[in-house]
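Assemble and predict.
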Amino acid sequence: MKCRIVQKKLSAYQDRELELQEQEQVTSHLLSCRTCHERHAALEQVWQTLAELEEIHPDPWFYRQLVIKIKEPCEQGLLPNFQRVFRLMPSPVIASILLVIGILAGTYLGSILTRHDLLPSQNDPLINSQGTFFSSLKAFDPVPPGTLAHGYLQMANYEERESR
Amino acid sequence: MNSTLSSEELMSRIAKGDDDAFEILVNRHQASILNLIYRFIGDRTQAKDLAQEVFLRVWQATKSYKPKAKFTTWIYQITTNLCLNELKSARRRKWVPFYHSDGDSENAIEKTFPDGSPTAEDLLLARERSCQISEALRSLPANQRMALVLKKYDDLSYREIAKILNCSIPAVESLIVRAKRTLQKKLTIDKK
């Protein structure tokens, strides 16, 4: 066997993954070739170094914690699914979606109300009372009617008209 | 409960509602799963959480489980997928803790000394060495790392690793060769 082929197969040889015949051929080559032998030794050294990696041990309460975790999802119910959906969407997207839904719902509701004549007519006392409603808005004028200031202004206007 | 039952038999018992069978199954595989995750992720606390997640998935899959392959191959598949997903999400979070030391790491190293009486210097050296190895392992790409860990520490065949990683046998061989080459460079430089 040539060195180039042996060196290609060194890893599989180390892992005992070669066919029995190939394994024997590589073994005999390693006994006769110093370069390949050194390469194999270096590979073995790395393999042995890896064994120095510490091993960890499971906690004695591992199984008990697991049982608690198993029981958890039943208590959580549907809420986590909703949370997951909302977490996936950025808030501006959610706001736009809600706005569009609001507009569509409003339009739909409006069209239903007009179609079924559910909107108040002109004879409706509600519409007639709109006049009183708008006059009551005058309470927010800078000089609301009925106040002292309003009376004074009216008097001043009267005097002005008289003098003319 | 007969603890000599195979893991496949235990799974069918769990499906029938036998909780004791699940406890035996967990006790049988918890150490190997925990260490596989730890060697891959490099973080003790995270390894413990992920090991719990693996067994949670095993529990959830008991009803649908059909023993097509060896139970260990199946559970290693679950573990590998979880580890790879965790690595992806850790990259997204840009949070990659490597070596997490906590209370029982000292005990863990102590157990690697056969005479049971390591000196403080021995402990320190062993911890440092273990840390170097972990760092070297973590520098490998995810697939190479998993293939190497499964070969080195779990002594699985290339065929089993191929099944777990869902790739061909030559691909596994190539992953392991490249991983060994990188580690050879890293660990030799570290020793110097």
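The domain at 1-100 of chain B is CATH 1.10.1740.10 (Rna Polymerase Sigma Factor; Chain: A).
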